[in-house]
Amino acid sequence: MIEAVGLTKRYGRTVAVDDLSFTVQAGRVTGFLGPNGAGKSTTMRMILGLDAPSAGQVRIDGKRYRDLHQPLRMVGALLDAKWVHPNRSARAHLRWLAKSNNLPVKRVDEVLETVGLTSVAGRRAGGFSLGMSQRLGIAAALLGDPQVLLFDEPVNGLDPEGILWIRKFMHRLADEGRTVFVSSHLLSEMALTAQELIVIGRGKLIAQSSTEEFVAQATESSVLVRSPQLPALRSALGRHGVHVRDDGDSLVVSGMDIADIGELAATSGAVLHELSPQRGSLEEAFIQLTGDSVEYHASTGNGHRPDLVTSGK
Question: I need a surface site. Which of 22, 127, 149, 206 has the fewest CB within 10 A?
Answer without folding.
Answer: 127
